[in-house]
Structures are given as structure tokens and as C-alpha cells.
Write a structure and sequence with these properties.
Blueprint lengths: L1 E5 L7 E2 L2 E2 L1 H18 L3 E5 L10 H15 L2 E2 L2 E2 L1 E5 L6 H4 L10 E3 L10 E4 L5 E6 L5 H33 L14 H23 L6 H22 L4 E7 L1 E2 L18 E2 L11 E5 L5 E3 L18 E4 L22 E8 L2 E2 L3 E4 L7 E6 L1 H5 L1 H6 L3 E7 L7 H8 L2 E8 L5 H4 L12 H13 L5 H23 L1
Parallel strand pairs: 1-4, 4-7, 7-8, 10-11, 11-14, 12-13, 14-16, 20-21, 21-22
Antiparallel strand pairs: 1-17, 2-3, 5-6, 9-10, 15-16, 17-18, 17-19
Amino acid sequence: MRVLHTSDWHIGRRFKGIDLLEYQRKALEWLIGLIKREQVDVLCVSGDVYDAPRPSAEAVRLFNEMFQRLGLMEVNGHRLQIIFTPGNHDSAERLGFGAALMLPNVHMRCDIADIATPIMVDSADGEQLAIYALPYLDPDLARPALQGLLNGADVLSSSAKVSDSAESDTQSGLEAPQLSVSGESDTQSGFETSQLSVSAESDKRRETNTIRRSHEGVIRAALQLITADLAARRKANPKLNAMLMAHVFVSGATASDSERNITVGGVDSVPAELFSNSGLDYLALGHLHRPQKITIPTKPTTESQFHLDRTPQARYSGSLLAYSFSESQTPPVEGNGKSVVLLDFTDGHLAKPRIMPVKSGEPPFVQIKGTMDDVLGPLAEQYRNMWVSITVQVPELPHGAYQKIDRAYTHALEKNFDYSQRTQSQESRKMVDLKQATDEMDVLRDFVKFSLSRTPTDKEERVLRDAMETVRKNAGKEVAQ
């Protein structure tokens, strides 16, 4: 059984004003080719299919085209199994629209109620793989649904215990209870006592299973449901392989600048040790855009949360494209080091994952830092046609700096100026004191003095005054309207 783990397609995303659909198309075309070449049985996309809850028409058209081609692909004599889950950028309702009408090999797992029901995939030689798929679980939105699932599971468990106990008493040949003095049977009285006991136990369990308002809390609750289902399936098939798709920030991972913050109550990560002894073979993680392996510690079974006999391998496949300069590679490389993960499950065992570099044609990202002479000289010769973020070290902003940089580079997408080389006298300057200012020009003059350690020239004074008059006129028009 061969599985391809991907995530964070972010179809429709732009970078510094540049439309990336061309590169996203190339990446998805390459992905389809990889599936054919490697005879992949299952494609997993662990969240953030789109970049926004309401994607643009162009983004929807691209996804629809690729989605149709993937859905009709045949591998090893059967249809490619495809599993999508929504991430924190997607709208679960919109992504999952029409899921019930889709082809049987396409699975849009957007409903919390389905998290403990795996997609069961059969291989040609009779092996099975259970794939559990978690939509992104926002703690505030997911807790009520998860709490209901947990409570329902506890009530069912308690009811089963009562039923088993009653059946045991009957089989043991106990004498029929006698009529009590009050006219009620001891059977009824005993049953009421049993009900009270079960109710108390159920209340205690509910209190224990109350989900905390955090990402750890909702993932823990989901794992309680998933591991219970997996344990039952392993009794029937001890060699059953199992994996979990999850869009979450696991502790120990390295983030980049392009992920949207998912902090709740100041906490955004889930401890890696939570997945210890969960019985899973692999965690197909999404959310972080940097491809990376996550180490899940193995604990003694008695000390783990779930007490099962397997601890998973775990990876973030990363995004198909780079979406921030923090994802740049050294040395720079086309595609910016993005990859997907190929997994082979055989006879209850997961082989070492294979990392496949994505071929998207996305230009190399480069972060450059130096003096103005460095940036306009040897660095420009080396990185002229790449996508660059430039930080210039200067004591003050040089005249025409932006224009000079734009002439030297085809795509200077970020221009920053580092004034750390200012003299000690420059560093000791104070910001404008608004209480001492008599008009707007005083504020502007003091700002120039603060920024450049000198007063504005006559030409700069005229520019500042013209800008101030323009602002006044526009403000007057807004008031009149």
C-alpha cells in the first residue's frame, strides 16, 4: 500500500502582490505525474487546500480542474483514493459541500462526527490500512461536538457494564428476590440502586473527560475516540496499519513566517508525547510550511495516555510552494526545498518514508544583507533574477535608494533599511515631543531629525508641506461628504 502525504496547497495565495497560480498549477501537474510514476494508492491532503475560506474564482477553477483529473485516476487497476481535510485557512462547510455526492474514492472529511470512523483502504493482496482524518479543530468551535461524542461513548460504556452485570447475575443462578414490605420488589429497588451507581460513575467520567479550551484539549479528546476505535479493530486484525491526518502545531516543530497564528489562550501547540503509544503507525501532519520530521517519544505503556503498542512516525510534508522569505534555502534553489512524503505500508509495517522534492518552478527566494555598495555590487550580480528580500545597512536613508535597488534586481520584493550603523550621537536622539509642537510641520521636522539626525533641506520642507496640504484637503472632503 503506497500513500502520498501532502498538505498546505493554499491554492489562490499571493506573495508580495505576485499571483502564484502559475506555480501552483505546475506543482499540482508534477504531483499528478508523481502519482502515476510511483503507482500511489492513496493521496492525503492534510488541510489548507485553499488559502482563504472564500477562494477566488481563479483558485476554484484550478482546484476543480486538478480535482477532476485526480478523482478519475486509476492506479494498479483501481481508482486513486483521495482524502481531503480542511485546515485553518479553509471553510469546512464550503470544502465539504456535496461530499455525499462525490465518487466513492473521494473522501472530504470535514465533519467532526466522522473522526473516529476511518477510511478503510484495501490493497490488491488483501492488506488493509485505516486512515483517520481530523479536520482542523478550533477549540472554541469543536469542543461542544467533541464533548457530546465523548459523553455518548461513556454512557454507552456504562450501559454495557450494567447489561453485562445483569447477565452475569442471571447466569450464576441467583434466587429471585422477595417482595419487600412496602410492596416494591427487591429487584426494582436493586435496579434503582444500580442506576444511581451508574449515574454517579457516568457523572464522574464526564467531569474527567471535560475538554479544556486549548488545542491540546481538543486533540486529546479526538485521540480518545480514535484510539478506542483502533483498539477494537486491532483485536480483529492485529496487523492492521493505521495513520492519522491532522492539521495542528506539534511541539518541537519549526514554524515559518507564512503560517496563520492559531493561538488560543496563549497556547498554540500540542505536546508531541500526547501521541505516544497511540497505536498509530504514522502522523500525516499539516499546518507548518517547512517540511520536517517530528520525534514522538516512546513511553512505557503504563505511563502513556492510551496504552497501545505502537508509537507513530510523524512528519510535516510542508507546503507545495514557499510563501515567505523565512522558507528560503542556503544555497538558493528553485522550488525552495519543498517536498512531499511517500509511505509504504506492508504486512503491518511502515517502511522508512521517502522525501520527494516538489518541482514547481517557483524562483529561488533569497535574503540579502549588506551595505549599499554590497547590495548594488557583487550581490546584485549573483542574485539579480531571483526573488529577493534586501536589508541595507546604512546610517541614514540614501537618496534614491529604492529606485537604485529596483534597477539592480528584477524582483526586489522586500526592501528594508537597518540603521544600526548610526553613530552614538545619532542613537541618543529623542523622538518628537508632541506637547512642544505648535503645528504639523514641527512634528514632521522633528521626525526627520529623529530619523536622519539632521533638519530637512529646503526641498524636503516643500515635499513635506505639500504632503500635509494634500492630507488636509482630503480630510476636508471626507468631512463635507
